[in-house]
Amino acid sequence: MQSEGPRVLLVEPFYGGSHKQLIDLLQQNVPECCACTLPAKKWPWRARTAALHFSQSIPSCSSYRVLFSSSVLNLCELVALRPDLARLKKVLYFHENQLVYPVRRDQERDFQYGYNQVLSCLVSDVVVFNSVFNMDSFLSSISSFMKKIPDHRPRDLDLLIRPKCVVLYYPVQFPDVSRPYRCPSSGDQQEGPHESSSEPGTEQRAVGERDTGAPMKPLHIVWPHRWEHDKNPELFFSTLIKLKEKQVDFHLSVLGETFTEVPEIFSEARRQLDPHVQNWGFLSRDRYLQVLLQADVVVSTARHEFFGVAMLEAVHCGCYPLCPKALVYPEIFPAEYLYSTPEQLCKRLQGLCRRPHLARTHVTKVDTTTFSWTSLKERFVSLLSDECP
Protein backbone atom coordinates (compact mmCIF):
# COMPACT_ATOMS: atom_id res chain seq x y z
CA MET A 1 0.00 0.00 0.00
CA GLN A 2 1.34 3.45 -0.92
CA SER A 3 2.32 5.57 2.07
CA GLU A 4 0.38 8.73 2.69
CA GLY A 5 2.23 11.89 1.74
CA PRO A 6 3.22 13.98 -1.28
CA ARG A 7 3.50 12.13 -4.57
CA VAL A 8 5.20 14.86 -6.66
CA LEU A 9 8.39 16.60 -5.55
CA LEU A 10 8.94 20.00 -7.19
CA VAL A 11 12.53 21.25 -6.97
CA GLU A 12 13.38 24.80 -8.04
CA PRO A 13 16.82 26.31 -7.34
CA PHE A 14 15.82 29.71 -8.78
CA TYR A 15 12.39 30.44 -7.34
CA GLY A 16 11.54 33.72 -9.05
CA GLY A 17 9.94 35.11 -12.20
CA SER A 18 8.56 32.53 -14.61
CA HIS A 19 10.23 29.72 -12.63
CA LYS A 20 8.25 30.67 -9.53
CA GLN A 21 5.02 31.10 -11.49
CA LEU A 22 5.29 27.60 -12.91
CA ILE A 23 6.05 25.96 -9.55
CA ASP A 24 3.16 27.84 -7.93
CA LEU A 25 0.77 26.79 -10.71
CA LEU A 26 1.75 23.14 -10.39
CA GLN A 27 1.54 23.17 -6.61
CA GLN A 28 -1.92 24.76 -6.73
CA ASN A 29 -3.36 22.56 -9.46
CA VAL A 30 -1.66 19.16 -9.35
CA PRO A 31 -2.70 16.93 -6.45
CA GLU A 32 -0.18 15.75 -3.87
CA CYS A 33 2.64 18.18 -4.71
CA CYS A 34 5.27 19.60 -2.40
CA ALA A 35 7.97 22.09 -3.33
CA CYS A 36 11.56 22.61 -2.27
CA THR A 37 12.97 25.93 -3.48
CA LEU A 38 15.76 28.48 -3.14
CA PRO A 39 15.34 32.25 -3.62
CA ALA A 40 16.03 33.67 -7.08
CA LYS A 41 19.42 35.17 -6.26
CA LYS A 42 22.93 34.62 -7.58
CA TRP A 43 21.94 32.37 -10.49
CA PRO A 44 25.50 31.11 -11.19
CA TRP A 45 25.85 29.84 -7.64
CA ARG A 46 22.42 28.22 -7.74
CA ALA A 47 23.42 26.35 -10.90
CA ARG A 48 26.70 25.24 -9.35
CA THR A 49 25.72 24.30 -5.81
CA ALA A 50 21.94 23.86 -5.40
CA ALA A 51 22.11 20.07 -5.80
CA LEU A 52 24.26 19.69 -2.70
CA HIS A 53 21.92 21.91 -0.70
CA PHE A 54 18.85 19.99 -1.78
CA SER A 55 20.52 16.64 -1.10
CA GLN A 56 20.64 17.68 2.56
CA SER A 57 17.36 19.63 2.80
CA ILE A 58 14.84 17.48 0.88
CA PRO A 59 13.21 15.21 3.46
CA SER A 60 13.12 11.47 2.88
CA CYS A 61 9.62 10.38 1.94
CA SER A 62 8.47 6.99 0.71
CA SER A 63 5.43 8.46 -1.06
CA TYR A 64 7.41 10.39 -3.70
CA ARG A 65 6.82 9.06 -7.20
CA VAL A 66 7.79 11.99 -9.47
CA LEU A 67 10.57 14.59 -9.31
CA PHE A 68 10.11 17.76 -11.36
CA SER A 69 12.87 20.35 -11.68
CA SER A 70 13.99 23.19 -13.90
CA SER A 71 17.26 22.76 -15.76
CA VAL A 72 19.00 25.19 -13.39
CA LEU A 73 19.46 22.19 -11.10
CA ASN A 74 22.28 19.74 -11.71
CA LEU A 75 19.94 16.76 -11.47
CA CYS A 76 22.81 14.33 -12.02
CA GLU A 77 24.49 15.45 -8.78
CA LEU A 78 21.25 15.38 -6.81
CA VAL A 79 20.28 11.82 -7.69
CA ALA A 80 23.86 10.63 -7.11
CA LEU A 81 23.81 12.16 -3.62
CA ARG A 82 20.26 10.96 -2.94
CA PRO A 83 19.74 7.41 -4.31
CA ASP A 84 16.19 7.42 -2.94
CA LEU A 85 15.35 10.18 -5.46
CA ALA A 86 17.06 8.37 -8.34
CA ARG A 87 14.24 5.79 -8.46
CA LEU A 88 11.58 8.44 -9.14
CA LYS A 89 10.23 9.45 -12.53
CA LYS A 90 12.51 12.43 -13.20
CA VAL A 91 11.13 15.33 -15.28
CA LEU A 92 13.46 18.15 -16.31
CA TYR A 93 11.94 21.42 -17.59
CA PHE A 94 13.98 23.81 -19.76
CA HIS A 95 12.96 27.47 -19.51
CA GLU A 96 16.19 28.22 -21.41
CA ASN A 97 19.31 26.35 -22.43
CA GLN A 98 22.88 27.30 -21.72
CA LEU A 99 24.34 25.91 -24.96
CA VAL A 100 23.04 28.86 -26.99
CA TYR A 101 22.34 31.43 -24.26
CA PRO A 102 23.97 34.61 -25.60
CA VAL A 103 27.25 35.87 -24.22
CA ARG A 104 29.15 38.88 -25.52
CA ARG A 105 32.18 36.76 -26.37
CA ASP A 106 32.21 32.98 -26.63
CA GLN A 107 35.29 32.90 -24.41
CA GLU A 108 33.05 34.15 -21.60
CA ARG A 109 30.71 31.15 -21.83
CA ASP A 110 31.06 29.03 -18.70
CA PHE A 111 31.30 25.47 -19.99
CA GLN A 112 30.05 24.03 -16.73
CA TYR A 113 26.50 25.40 -17.01
CA GLY A 114 25.80 23.75 -20.36
CA TYR A 115 27.65 20.60 -19.31
CA ASN A 116 25.44 20.33 -16.22
CA GLN A 117 22.33 20.57 -18.38
CA VAL A 118 23.54 17.79 -20.68
CA LEU A 119 24.29 15.55 -17.67
CA SER A 120 20.86 16.32 -16.21
CA CYS A 121 19.22 15.26 -19.47
CA LEU A 122 21.11 11.96 -19.44
CA VAL A 123 19.72 10.99 -16.01
CA SER A 124 16.19 12.32 -16.66
CA ASP A 125 13.26 10.23 -17.81
CA VAL A 126 11.49 13.09 -19.57
CA VAL A 127 13.12 16.28 -20.87
CA VAL A 128 10.60 19.06 -21.46
CA PHE A 129 11.23 22.26 -23.44
CA ASN A 130 9.06 25.35 -23.49
CA SER A 131 9.35 25.69 -27.28
CA VAL A 132 10.49 23.79 -30.35
CA PHE A 133 13.19 26.42 -30.80
CA ASN A 134 14.53 25.73 -27.31
CA MET A 135 14.61 21.97 -27.93
CA ASP A 136 16.11 22.10 -31.42
CA SER A 137 18.76 24.68 -30.53
CA PHE A 138 19.84 22.61 -27.53
CA LEU A 139 19.99 19.25 -29.30
CA SER A 140 21.71 20.62 -32.40
CA SER A 141 24.37 22.36 -30.29
CA ILE A 142 25.45 19.45 -28.11
CA SER A 143 27.99 18.07 -30.58
CA SER A 144 29.80 21.36 -31.20
CA PHE A 145 29.59 22.25 -27.50
CA MET A 146 31.35 19.02 -26.52
CA LYS A 147 34.17 19.81 -28.94
CA LYS A 148 35.38 22.34 -26.37
CA ILE A 149 36.64 19.37 -24.39
CA PRO A 150 40.36 19.01 -25.30
CA ASP A 151 40.27 15.25 -25.85
CA HIS A 152 38.29 12.05 -25.12
CA ARG A 153 35.10 13.77 -26.17
CA PRO A 154 31.78 11.95 -25.71
CA ARG A 155 29.82 11.24 -28.88
CA ASP A 156 26.19 11.01 -29.96
CA LEU A 157 24.79 12.44 -26.74
CA ASP A 158 21.99 14.12 -28.70
CA LEU A 159 20.89 10.68 -29.93
CA LEU A 160 20.61 9.49 -26.32
CA ILE A 161 18.66 12.57 -25.20
CA ARG A 162 16.34 13.19 -28.15
CA PRO A 163 13.96 10.23 -27.50
CA LYS A 164 13.21 11.67 -24.05
CA CYS A 165 12.33 15.13 -25.33
CA VAL A 166 8.90 16.74 -25.57
CA VAL A 167 7.73 20.31 -26.12
CA LEU A 168 5.24 21.71 -23.65
CA TYR A 169 4.73 25.46 -23.89
CA TYR A 170 5.08 27.54 -20.78
CA PRO A 171 1.57 27.94 -19.31
CA VAL A 172 0.69 31.63 -19.08
CA GLN A 173 -2.02 32.80 -16.71
CA PHE A 174 -3.41 35.55 -18.88
CA PRO A 175 -5.23 38.35 -17.07
CA ASP A 176 -8.92 38.94 -17.56
CA VAL A 177 -8.71 42.31 -19.29
CA SER A 178 -10.91 44.70 -21.21
CA ARG A 179 -9.50 47.13 -23.74
CA PRO A 180 -10.22 50.83 -23.31
CA TYR A 181 -12.82 52.03 -25.82
CA ARG A 182 -10.86 54.46 -27.95
CA CYS A 183 -11.31 56.45 -31.08
CA PRO A 184 -8.24 56.33 -33.35
CA SER A 185 -8.83 59.88 -34.57
CA SER A 186 -9.08 61.35 -31.10
CA GLY A 187 -6.79 61.91 -28.19
CA ASP A 188 -9.54 61.00 -25.77
CA GLN A 189 -10.17 57.59 -24.26
CA GLN A 190 -13.41 56.34 -22.82
CA GLU A 191 -13.32 53.39 -20.49
CA GLY A 192 -15.97 50.83 -21.28
CA PRO A 193 -16.60 47.14 -21.71
CA HIS A 194 -14.81 45.49 -24.59
CA GLU A 195 -16.52 42.93 -26.78
CA SER A 196 -13.86 40.45 -27.81
CA SER A 197 -13.77 39.07 -31.33
CA SER A 198 -15.34 35.71 -32.06
CA GLU A 199 -11.91 34.35 -32.94
CA PRO A 200 -10.40 32.81 -29.78
CA GLY A 201 -7.30 34.40 -28.31
CA THR A 202 -7.60 37.67 -30.19
CA GLU A 203 -8.30 41.15 -28.95
CA GLN A 204 -9.84 43.95 -30.99
CA ARG A 205 -10.29 47.56 -30.11
CA ALA A 206 -13.65 49.19 -30.56
CA VAL A 207 -13.45 51.96 -33.11
CA GLY A 208 -15.39 55.20 -32.77
CA GLU A 209 -16.35 57.75 -35.35
CA ARG A 210 -13.39 59.19 -37.27
CA ASP A 211 -14.88 62.52 -38.33
CA THR A 212 -14.53 64.28 -34.96
CA GLY A 213 -11.78 66.54 -36.27
CA ALA A 214 -9.72 65.95 -33.13
CA PRO A 215 -5.96 65.41 -33.56
CA MET A 216 -4.83 61.81 -33.73
CA LYS A 217 -3.15 60.58 -30.58
CA PRO A 218 0.46 59.45 -31.22
CA LEU A 219 1.22 55.77 -31.51
CA HIS A 220 2.05 54.30 -28.09
CA ILE A 221 5.03 51.91 -28.31
CA VAL A 222 5.85 49.60 -25.40
CA TRP A 223 9.06 47.64 -24.68
CA PRO A 224 8.29 45.30 -21.73
CA HIS A 225 11.54 43.36 -21.30
CA ARG A 226 14.32 42.86 -18.76
CA TRP A 227 16.87 45.69 -18.87
CA GLU A 228 19.73 43.48 -19.98
CA HIS A 229 21.96 43.23 -23.04
CA ASP A 230 20.44 39.98 -24.32
CA LYS A 231 17.20 41.87 -24.99
CA ASN A 232 19.16 44.22 -27.30
CA PRO A 233 17.94 47.60 -26.00
CA GLU A 234 20.57 49.24 -28.20
CA LEU A 235 18.64 48.31 -31.35
CA PHE A 236 15.32 49.40 -29.89
CA PHE A 237 16.52 52.81 -28.74
CA SER A 238 18.57 53.53 -31.86
CA THR A 239 15.43 52.85 -33.91
CA LEU A 240 13.33 55.26 -31.86
CA ILE A 241 16.04 57.93 -32.01
CA LYS A 242 15.96 57.61 -35.81
CA LEU A 243 12.19 58.10 -35.73
CA LYS A 244 12.67 61.18 -33.56
CA GLU A 245 15.23 62.56 -36.02
CA LYS A 246 12.68 62.04 -38.80
CA GLN A 247 10.26 64.10 -36.67
CA VAL A 248 7.91 61.15 -36.33
CA ASP A 249 5.76 61.46 -33.22
CA PHE A 250 5.11 58.60 -30.78
CA HIS A 251 4.59 57.82 -27.11
CA LEU A 252 6.93 55.41 -25.34
CA SER A 253 6.71 53.08 -22.34
CA VAL A 254 9.86 51.18 -21.33
CA LEU A 255 8.94 48.61 -18.69
CA GLY A 256 10.49 45.44 -17.31
CA GLU A 257 12.75 44.53 -14.42
CA THR A 258 16.14 46.04 -13.71
CA PHE A 259 19.04 44.24 -12.08
CA THR A 260 22.36 45.20 -10.53
CA GLU A 261 24.00 46.19 -13.82
CA VAL A 262 21.77 48.25 -16.08
CA PRO A 263 23.17 48.80 -19.60
CA GLU A 264 24.33 52.40 -20.06
CA ILE A 265 22.08 52.85 -23.10
CA PHE A 266 19.04 53.25 -20.82
CA SER A 267 20.17 56.52 -19.21
CA GLU A 268 21.24 57.99 -22.54
CA ALA A 269 18.03 56.89 -24.24
CA ARG A 270 15.94 58.41 -21.45
CA ARG A 271 17.70 61.74 -21.98
CA GLN A 272 17.20 61.73 -25.75
CA LEU A 273 13.65 60.36 -25.78
CA ASP A 274 12.31 62.07 -22.67
CA PRO A 275 9.62 64.15 -24.47
CA HIS A 276 8.08 60.90 -25.75
CA VAL A 277 8.20 58.93 -22.49
CA GLN A 278 4.92 57.95 -20.83
CA ASN A 279 6.29 55.27 -18.45
CA TRP A 280 9.85 54.31 -17.55
CA GLY A 281 10.80 51.40 -15.33
CA PHE A 282 9.29 48.54 -13.39
CA LEU A 283 5.61 48.84 -12.47
CA SER A 284 3.20 47.02 -10.20
CA ARG A 285 1.31 44.20 -11.89
CA ASP A 286 -1.93 46.17 -12.09
CA ARG A 287 -0.25 49.28 -13.46
CA TYR A 288 1.77 47.18 -15.91
CA LEU A 289 -1.42 45.69 -17.35
CA GLN A 290 -3.01 49.15 -17.56
CA VAL A 291 -0.08 50.34 -19.69
CA LEU A 292 -0.35 47.32 -21.98
CA LEU A 293 -4.05 48.01 -22.38
CA GLN A 294 -3.30 51.60 -23.38
CA ALA A 295 -0.38 50.81 -25.71
CA ASP A 296 -0.67 50.23 -29.46
CA VAL A 297 2.49 48.33 -30.45
CA VAL A 298 4.76 45.98 -28.50
CA VAL A 299 8.32 45.50 -29.78
CA SER A 300 10.94 42.85 -29.18
CA THR A 301 14.54 43.34 -30.25
CA ALA A 302 15.80 40.29 -28.35
CA ARG A 303 18.99 38.39 -29.13
CA HIS A 304 17.73 35.67 -26.82
CA GLU A 305 14.22 34.37 -26.41
CA PHE A 306 13.18 30.80 -25.80
CA PHE A 307 9.49 31.60 -25.24
CA GLY A 308 8.55 35.21 -24.48
CA VAL A 309 5.80 35.67 -21.89
CA ALA A 310 5.95 39.48 -22.04
CA MET A 311 5.19 39.60 -25.77
CA LEU A 312 2.27 37.20 -25.45
CA GLU A 313 0.81 39.11 -22.51
CA ALA A 314 1.00 42.34 -24.52
CA VAL A 315 -0.72 40.68 -27.48
CA HIS A 316 -3.39 39.33 -25.15
CA CYS A 317 -3.95 42.93 -24.01
CA GLY A 318 -4.41 44.00 -27.64
CA CYS A 319 -1.00 45.27 -28.74
CA TYR A 320 0.24 44.84 -32.30
CA PRO A 321 3.51 42.81 -32.09
CA LEU A 322 6.77 43.39 -33.95
CA CYS A 323 9.39 40.67 -33.38
CA PRO A 324 12.66 39.49 -34.93
CA LYS A 325 12.36 36.82 -37.60
CA ALA A 326 14.53 34.56 -35.45
CA LEU A 327 14.69 32.66 -32.17
CA VAL A 328 11.28 31.41 -30.96
CA TYR A 329 9.24 34.13 -32.65
CA PRO A 330 8.46 32.44 -36.01
CA GLU A 331 7.11 29.52 -33.99
CA ILE A 332 4.53 31.72 -32.27
CA PHE A 333 3.90 34.77 -34.47
CA PRO A 334 2.69 34.84 -38.11
CA ALA A 335 5.11 36.26 -40.68
CA GLU A 336 3.38 39.64 -40.88
CA TYR A 337 4.61 40.48 -37.37
CA LEU A 338 8.26 39.60 -38.04
CA TYR A 339 11.10 41.80 -39.25
CA SER A 340 14.46 40.62 -40.59
CA THR A 341 16.65 43.74 -40.34
CA PRO A 342 16.90 46.91 -38.23
CA GLU A 343 15.87 48.85 -41.33
CA GLN A 344 12.67 46.82 -41.59
CA LEU A 345 11.85 47.46 -37.95
CA CYS A 346 12.35 51.19 -38.40
CA LYS A 347 10.21 51.24 -41.54
CA ARG A 348 7.39 49.26 -39.89
CA LEU A 349 7.32 51.53 -36.86
CA GLN A 350 7.49 54.64 -38.98
CA GLY A 351 4.50 53.48 -40.99
CA LEU A 352 2.49 52.71 -37.87
CA CYS A 353 3.44 56.03 -36.28
CA ARG A 354 2.04 57.83 -39.31
CA ARG A 355 -1.11 55.69 -39.39
CA PRO A 356 -1.77 54.64 -35.77
CA HIS A 357 -5.28 53.44 -36.55
CA LEU A 358 -3.77 50.47 -38.42
CA ALA A 359 -2.49 49.12 -35.09
CA ARG A 360 -5.53 50.24 -33.12
CA THR A 361 -8.08 48.50 -35.30
CA HIS A 362 -6.03 45.41 -36.10
CA VAL A 363 -7.20 42.01 -34.86
CA THR A 364 -4.01 40.20 -33.88
CA LYS A 365 -3.69 36.80 -35.54
CA VAL A 366 -2.22 35.06 -32.51
CA ASP A 367 -4.38 32.62 -30.58
CA THR A 368 -3.11 33.24 -27.06
CA THR A 369 -5.34 30.49 -25.67
CA THR A 370 -2.84 28.00 -27.10
CA PHE A 371 -0.38 29.14 -24.44
CA SER A 372 -2.79 29.48 -21.52
CA TRP A 373 -2.75 27.42 -18.34
CA THR A 374 -6.35 26.48 -19.04
CA SER A 375 -5.35 24.83 -22.33
CA LEU A 376 -2.15 23.22 -21.06
CA LYS A 377 -3.19 22.09 -17.59
CA GLU A 378 -4.10 18.52 -18.54
CA ARG A 379 -0.78 17.96 -20.28
CA PHE A 380 1.09 19.08 -17.17
CA VAL A 381 -1.06 16.86 -14.97
CA SER A 382 -0.28 13.93 -17.28
CA LEU A 383 3.41 14.80 -17.25
CA LEU A 384 3.46 14.59 -13.46
CA SER A 385 1.57 11.30 -13.30
CA ASP A 386 3.28 8.14 -12.10
CA GLU A 387 3.15 6.64 -15.55
CA CYS A 388 6.45 5.96 -17.23
CA PRO A 389 7.14 8.07 -20.35
Essential attributes:
Rossmann fold, globular, alpha/beta, six-stranded parallel sheet
Describe the protein in words:
With 389 residues, this protein is α/β, with parallel strands linked by helices. It folds into two domains: 8-172 and 373-383, Rossmann fold; 181-371, Glycogen Phosphorylase B (Rossmann fold), CATH 3.40.50.2000. The protein contains 15 helices and 14 strands. The strands form three sheets. A six-stranded parallel β-sheet has the order 2-1-3-4-5-6, sandwiched between helices. Strand 10, helix 9 and strand 11 form a beta-alpha-beta unit. Helix 2 (43-57) packs parallel to helix 3 (75-81), helix 3 (75-81) packs across helix 5 and helix 8 runs parallel beside helix 9 (265-273). The longest helix is centred in the N-terminal third of the chain and has 15 residues, at 43-57. It is globular and about 70 Å long.
